[in-house]
Design a protein that fits this description.
elongated, 23 helices, alpha/beta, four-stranded antiparallel beta sheet, six-stranded mixed beta sheet, 13% strand, single chain
Amino acid sequence: MIRRSIAVLASLAVPLIALSIGGFQGSLFAQFALYGVATAALALCWGFAGILSLGHAVSFGIGAYVAAWCGINIPDGGTLLGILFGGLAAGAVSLLVGLVGLRGRVNVITFALLTFVLLFGAVEVVNQLTPITGGFNGLAGVPPLNLGDLWTADPVAQRVIVTIAAVGLLWLLIIVARSPFGGALVLAKTHAIRAASSGYNIPAFRIGTFAFAGVVTGLAGALFSTQTQFVAPDQISLLLATNFVLWAMIGSRTSLIGAFFTAIVISFITNELADKFLTLWLLAMGIIFIAVVVLIPDGIAEAVLKRLPERWRPRRTVTLTTTEHGGGGGGQALEATGITCTFGKFTAVDNVDFSARSGVHCLIGPNGAGKSTLLNALSGTVPPSSGRWRVGNTDLTKMRPWKMARAGVARKFQAPAVAPELTVAQNLAVARLGVTVHPFALIFAPWRADLTTTAWRILETGDLVRLLDTPASRLAHGQRQVLELAMTFASRPNLVLLDEPTAGMTAGETESIAEILRSESAALDIPIVVVEHDMALIRSAASAVTVLQAGRVLATGTVAEIEKNAEVTRAYVGEGPS
């Protein structure tokens, strides 16, 4: 309640400040509030989705130019149409850029350079397209915001309405960031493959987020033009694009409110000091930026939050309930034939036939035998060169990981793949909601998830039930392993693929997990395929074992049969039994 009250009061303060500051300073405050909105939109992309745009000013400038042109050239209602079209045009350009740069695996640096090149191209277009943009001189005589008979063009009322709109846009961004959709973005930023294996179409999420941020930034730019009543190439410049990045970095990439107010404050300081101490101010800004990067890399807002009392720190309330699995595999088996994975001239998995029925089926073998690669192929994270596989009547061949997850395949990775910035409960909710809620409905979905009793048993084994509100960043390695294992079973799977699930756990925890796997595979009637080196777990849990060597199946049988197999012994120690 305290945190919510502070957020509401901060939001109300923005238009009140615009109302109380007189004359030119009040108009500047309204303009800087719109800079703050654009900075917060960049923070959503950068801090939550891991998408850095060095050309963020392009969206702002598109909104400003479209709104200015419509206001000047359309007599009736041109201003409002311009604001609408400005936001849509900026969003359309962002969508196109996203489709080009965010469809596959994203390299942050490559995408940032793409947007940087786009910025220079946009500046050149603005400067050369003189009949529409006014070229270097810009567009003058842009009419102020006008709502017809419902509204007069009083300057004070203008800036109050504009700052109210700025706060509204900021809260749109905050709603997305604080929703399960934002949680999925955070998981994808840290572990994209884990997010995809939880049922999320990550390219669509990133493209949609980037386009949404473009719309919001375009609307801010459009409103900006009604305040300045003049649009120039400065609104789409390298300087403004750089400022957006600096403000987001200094304020905090993961605090939209921090980024918003940092943009306002620094813009005011710059306006006051730049004319008198231009060279010194630029030097000071450089020093401030370096200091923030070195001393408080998460930004000022995050540094302040960490020093607040625990009860004041923002936390999402997550409601977790428990029911029986309810799905079950119905005795459906995993059947794979001819699985081959090649990387250049190297063959990691060579024409493997593999089947697993209800129970725990362990994959073992020397290092480099192809165990994890086979698991990656079966979960869709590494498409095999050839082969087919299915669970029951569901053909999984060439299915993408997010579709495979929604078809009932759950995957746990070798290294713990959880979102450190999310709490234990949020990680669990994100894992569950990925297979139950339409992706974009997550924006409005509550933080609520119905977990299986299996997931709760795993949490209890790792003593995580008491830590549900604890950020995953504070968990030890073994606890993160337990959390991801619980996330895997939270999706109510029909097939479970686990890669060294107990690495880093104590002997007692390992035995407890082995018992859970053994009992739950029978109760849920599903196959659980485990890549494992720990023979204690294998002896305790496995109903069948397949040994791989050099990418091929060496032997399959029960634990006792495998331990007596001379070929398996030679594969491990290089000699047969005496």
